[in-house]
Amino acid sequence: MEALKLYTLTDLLNTPADRVELIDGTIVQRPMARMEHGLVQHRASVELGPFDRPTGPSGWWIATEVSVHYAAHQCPTHDLAGWRKERLPHRPSGVVELAPDWVCEIVSPGHERKDTLTLFLLLQRQQVPYYWLIWPEERALVAWHLDGGSYKVIASCTAPNAAEQKQRIPPFDAIELDLGYILGDAGAG
Known about the structure:
Oligomer: single chain
Distance between the termini: 56 Å
Number of strands: 10
Radius of gyration: 17 Å
CATH topology: tt1808, chain A
CATH superfamily: tt1808, chain A
Order of helices and strands: HEEHEEEHEEEEEH
Structural class: alpha+beta
Number of helices: 4
Strand order of the largest sheet: 3-4-5-6-7-8
Helix content: 10-25%
């Protein structure tokens, strides 16, 4: 019986393939980018922009498509991730070695298990304080906060419910986020 090889960051960095990440010691192909995914990722970045600027609430490094090396066999690439500048005063470069303060994954068809279970458990173990999931096709967002070592739901939203168009969702509750814009109408231009 042949032993299962668990890959490391070195193996990942030496992989010639594009759009790959390291999950549980396996080099995994990231899903093909879809328009719905790209729009939600862009719109979330725009809405959270004030936190990454010198003016406004600021105090964050927010990045898209950033790889984070959590452990020997874990280096996922997050759709969106943020670090408080008080924990990470200088902008990181390359693969980041410090766990983020917030991660947002945009759930892709066929990759639901990775985002809703595998990464959920990894980030919980790594004590990432906030984890958001967005389902573009369902136009839904669920946000969790780490409480006593376990994630607890702090927001669950779907568009276009008028009562949910603008909400304050931690850790970005200093401003109202326009969920109607982030989750958007799939048919609107």
